[in-house]
Amino acid sequence: MNLPAHVWPAGASRGADGAVRVAGVDLRALAAELGTPAYVLDEADFRSRARSFREGFERVFAAIGTHVDVYYAGKAFLCTAVARWAHEEGLRIDTSTGGELAVALRAGVPGADIGLHGNNKSDAEIARALEAGVGRIVIDSLGEVDRVADAVRSRGDGRRAPVMVRVTTGVHAGGHEYISTAHEDQKFGLSISGGRALEALRAVLARPELDLIGVHSHIGSQILDPSSFEVAARRVLELRAELATLTGHLMPEVDLGGGFGIAYTPGEVPLDPVRVAKDVAGVVDATCAELGTPVPRISVEPGRAIVGPTTLTLYTVGTVKPVTVDERLTRLYVSVDGGMSDNLRPALYGARYTAALVSRAAGADLVPARVVGKHCESGDILVHDVQLPADIAPGDLLAVPATGAYGRSMASNYNHVPRPPVVAVRDGVARVIVRRETEQDLLALDVG
Fold it and tell me: What is the pLDDT of residue 222?
């Protein structure tokens, strides 16, 4: 069974024996040493994608006379090693909670290269961001303007906090309602059309403790149509020009967010980031010319598009059960030693994945199959429809690709199952960068 390059990690290959190796590491040996389930992350692939994103966007936007900052969206997956890799490849880090901020700081990322998001930041998170000297705090509500300004004033050091205001453009984009974030009826940002965005921007300007550096827009996740970014960019630039006309303050930066889609199954086509950059740069250049405003500094926040394809989840097959669906279809239910606790997206969004036998060559024809987990839920389905060898059996290794984004980030201890490790592979060497949880870890939290 082939491993489509646009779905599997760049370093994944199947040998003559049918076994799969990633970055020169035999998955059979990795499973024998470190156990399963395990997230296997191709470090060179991650670095290459981060570098390509930065270089591609920088090159395209330099042609219209401006600079781009690429922020790695930590919510996709963050640990100290990944934060360090991203920063070493020239990316900044976008965080959305105090925990993500703590990881980025532990990785040695300078505060100036970190941003803090969040629709409901705590006082402690705001204070920690100010203490760290983050490069920007993204304000998400009118009430937060005064909360951040008051926190700055209470420090008494005379420094101003650089802030952006997150706005909703009315552009509805993304693969599922839950991950479309720019329509009006949802929790993030302030509406442009309703006037709340302009009100918040003016409120920031009224507080001398705050430095309004820009406006922020994020229209959703798993976006495969670049036209959504173009429409959002135009609306944000029009808001920037309107504020300048009313107040004389021209914000120097515009953040266009992330949400660049990837391929989860062989039939999907990932969004080409350079194509998006070219299309959006054209809109930015033309819109600014129409409005008579200089082109702003641009920032973007890819997370899924960088880490998603670099990682697969490795499982051991347990129960294999043929189920007669109707007179025309018998489906093979293949149970693995993980499930919705290590990949929630199929249960939460109905997300579709593929899977492959990776420990040997197939010895039989492919048949319709469904990969399911070990949890006490009928909805614990990892791969709804896939063709697997009819002779797949207990003890075989199965891998699900494109799990780098949100797999470990959304992982849980449902049914008291410890979370899997994250194993980085590079140049034939595997190393654990997030260790496997143990039952002792779970019991340590239970104070009785």
Answer: 82
Look-up: residue for tokens 């029009």?
238
- Within a domain: 1: no
Structure-token match 């309602």, residue found = 177
Nearest alpha-carbon partner for 187 in 242, 236, 144, 146: 144
Owning domain of residue 325: 12-43+309-445
Buried b (16+ CB within 10 A) or exposed e, 122-139: eeebbbbbbebebbbbbb
Top pLDDT among 390 and 169 is at: 390
Contact 237, 258 (CB under 8 A): no
Phi-psi category of residue 401: left, alpha or beta, with phi > 0 → left and psi -120 to 50 → alpha: beta
Asked if residues 191 and 197 have their Cβ atoms less than 8 Å apart, the reply is yes
Domain containing 196 — which CATH number? 3.20.20.10
**DSSP code at position 113:** G
CA 246/CA 199 separation, integer angstroms: 12
pLDDT of residue 176: 41
pLDDT in tens, 186-199: 778 899 988 999 99
| Contact in structure between 128 and 189 (CB atoms under 8 Å) | no
| Comparison of pLDDT for 323 and 180, the residue scoring more | 323
pLDDT confidence band for 327 (50 / 70 / 90) = confident
| Residue 376 is a catalytic residue | yes
Give me the DSSP letters along 166-216. Answer: EEE-S---SSSGGG--SSSSSSSSEESTTSHHHHHHHHHHT-TTEEEEEEE
Same domain, 116 and 233: yes
Half-sphere exposure of 99 (CA within 13 A, CB side): 5
Q: Single out the catalytic residue among 16, 329, 376, 444.
A: 376
Structure tokens at 264: 């989860």
Query: What values do phi and psi take at 280, rounded to 5?
Result: -70, -40
